[in-house]
Amino acid sequence: MTTAFASRDSLLCRAQVRCSTTAPVAALRAQLGEAPLDLLILFVTSQTGFAEVVAEAEAFYPDTDVIACTTAGEIGAGGYEEGQIVAVGFPKSDFAATALAIADLENFQADAEMDRIAQERVALQDRSPEMETGFAFLIVDGLSLREDVLTASLSPALRDMPLFGASAGDGTAFRETLVSLNGKVLENAAVLSLVRSNHQTRVFSLNHLVPTETQMVVTGADPERRIVKSINAEPAAREYARIVGKDPYQLDRFTFASHPVVVRIGDDHHVRAIQQVNDDGELVFFSAIDEGMVLTVAEPTNMAQHLRRKMGELSQDHGLSDVICCDCILRRIEAEQTQMTRELSDILAEHNVTGLSTYGEQIGPLHVNQTMTGVAFYRKEAAT
Predict the structure, then answer these.
(1) CB within 8 A of 340, min separation 6: which ones?
(2) Structure confidence by residue, pLDDT tens digits, 196-205
(3) What is the side-by-side order of every strand in the sheet holding 163-167?
């Protein structure tokens, strides 16, 4: 079954299809319509053949930049979704875009990529001088462990284009995360899209966590692999469990979602989310970690109430038409644990939110976790 779920007021073209659908991109195209697109984004469940989907998309959209990634869950017409392929199209009438692949992140050359991105940014501005707003959207192989270096390096080259993005997921398997550009499947890579518009856009990031007074210090770490070996000079998993009042042998993703740790950067706190405990009793993190880092335990507030309030704030400028978001998998896990999935889904659907669950989010020069990060679109004639 395919669902076109853009309202009449939407600036974007949106549709979704179950992964079991025969010729899914053909079904999506039927719902997206015939309007020429300058960019098409596909959020593809890990329950289907990614290569087949992107190959079909390239056949149907040979003249459009098509970017895609695997997900840790989808956000579509019904809010939180599973087993879907979600499509978001940017009509040429309102948007101009360009996309470029950044391959081999293991050997990432910052200076060369920054020059290439700056050239693409200027070329896009020259091609669409009447479009005065814009943003950059970055999707990264979520198992590459390179998001921190990548975002810190790329952000300066974008100048006035705010950056947000997602680390591609693989459900809760953590085995294979993929991205693609124009039919080419990429691992250990990223795809950056630069987008300009006739309408107003606003990049945002939110989380519902409040830091406590409880702190711990990383005393042993393997930063390259994002592994914490010891906390407060004690085995990491055991000490973390003691601090949050849990059995060290029963730590799981629900524990990590409900007892997150944050690090202070400037005046703000950013989550350093724990992915899992490895066989050596060490903590594997989703983002950068290092010896000497001070971690603060945070407490979640009511996620549904927080999301409703923040979506309301985004809607205060009249003319909100659509939202694309990158939502950390730990938020979805917490929603399931606290039985808020339905309420959160209703809020997402009410505000035309489309996107994916991720293994991490990008905002400006930072790679973060346990956030909802995205971009809101406003019709120019109605925006204030």
Answers:
(1) 303, 304, 334
(2) 999 999 999 9
(3) 95-102, 190-197, 133-140, 163-167, 361-363, 366-368
The pLDDT, as a whole number, for residue 9 is 73
**Distance of alpha carbon 192 from its chain centroid, rounded?**
13
What is this structure's pTM? 0.93
DSSP-assigned letter for residue 303:
H
pLDDT recorded at residue 230: 98
Measure the CA–CA gap between 43 and 37, rounded to whole angstroms.
17
Q: Which long-range contacts (CB under 8 A, 24 or more apart) does 300-305 make?
A: 300/208, 300/209, 300/210, 300/258, 300/260, 300/334, 301/208, 301/209, 301/210, 302/208, 303/208, 303/331, 303/334, 303/335, 303/338, 303/340, 303/344, 304/340, 304/343, 304/344, 304/347
Q: What pLDDT, on a 0 to 100 scale, did the predictor assign at position 7?
A: 54
pLDDT in tens, 105-141: 999 988 999 999 999 999 999 999 999 999 999 999 9
Q: Tell me how far apart the alpha carbons of residues 338 and 258 are, in angstroms, rounded to a whole number.
A: 9
Read off the DSSP letter of residue 72: S
**Order of strands across the sheet that contains 200-206:** 79-81, 74-76, 353-358, 320-328, 372-378, 200-206
b/e per residue 249-266 (b: at least 16 CB within 10 A): eebebebbbbbbbbbeee
